[in-house]
Amino acid sequence: MDMSNIPNHIAIIPDGNRRWARLHGVPTIEGHREGVNRAIEILETLYEHGIPFFTFWGSSLSNLTTRTKEEIFALEQLYVLQFKKLVENRQIHKKRVKIRVLGPWESVLGKKAVSSIRKAEKKTEHYGDFSLTFLIAYDGIEEMIRAMEQIASEARESRDLVINSELLKKHLYTRELPPVDLVIRTGGEPHLSAGFMMWDIAESQLEFSEKLWPDYTKDDFAATISKFQKRERRFGT
User: Fold this and answer.
1) Within 13 Å of residue 84, how many CA atoms lie on the same side as its CB?
2) Residue 168 in contact with residue 144, Cβ under 8 Å?
3) Side-chain half-sphere of 105: how many Cα atoms within 13 Å?
């Protein structure tokens, strides 16, 4: 395995769960469950490649506020179960994976889902060899507005406040994460959504897959990493 030029931080937009379910004639939640299975498989590949930071967009704010009550409830139940499984996953503890969940999820999800997520964060808060971040109830535009509001409040308190990139980063949900090196979006739609991590992906490489997320395998992921290793990054030039 070629370990040169490995990305330090990968972010994934796992699009296609609902379309996969429709194509297979199964309930929408089955598409989400298959999506979770792919995420678990790819997490193993991260260990193999030694990629320390991995961010996974679990749901947008609109996913948890505008979809049917039945789908939202099913997603919450899936969170309850999957974060419980993460806490019980031996590899999480063996590889010392720190779990973070970013976004205004605590104000959107039900008590059981919030409790399950908090437990996963608490049980892994002292780890740091790998970082697994989930964006839940996340909207990048709202994240940036929130950061600017907080900076404006600080500026009213201190006229000497220096507004720079470090200050802005400090007010983002992702303040503890490094810049993203590679963004992967599945589902065949080559675009970014809702201002996805707009500050952190300023110099990212982008990879768009035609495959729906439940069909995106660890081999596809490994091939994407190999492609990234061969690219020359110019960082804005």
Assistant:
1) 10
2) no
3) 27
Question: How far is residue 60's CA from residue 135's CA, in Å, rounded to a whole number?
Answer: 8
Q: Which phi and psi angles does 84 have, rounded to 5°?
A: -65, -40
Query: Mind listing the pLDDT tens digit of every residue in the chain (237 residues)?
Result: 556 789 999 999 999 999 999 999 999 989 999 999 999 899 888 898 999 999 999 999 988 888 888 888 989 999 999 999 999 999 999 999 999 999 999 999 999 999 999 999 999 999 999 999 999 999 999 999 999 999 999 999 988 999 999 999 999 999 999 999 999 999 999 999 899 999 999 999 999 999 999 999 999 999 999 999 988 776 655
Please report how many Cα atoms fall inside a 13 Å half-sphere around the Cα of residue 49, on the Cβ side.
27
Of 2, 5, 15, 200, the active-site residue reads 15
Q: State how many domains the chain has.
A: 1
- Strand (E) positions, 136-234? 182-185, 205-208
Give the domain range for residue 97: 9-139+179-225
- The radius of gyration computed from the CA coordinates of the chain, to the nearest angstrom, equals 18
8 is catalytic: no
- Is position 64 within any domain? yes
* 237 in any annotated domain: no
CATH number at residue 30: 3.40.1180.10
Catalytic hit among 17, 63, 139, 181: 63
pTM: 0.93
Domain for residue 167, yes or no? no
For this structure, is 5 an active site residue?
no
- Look at residues 218, 138, 143 and name the one whose alpha carbon lies nearest to residue 184: 218
- Identify whether 62 is part of a domain: yes
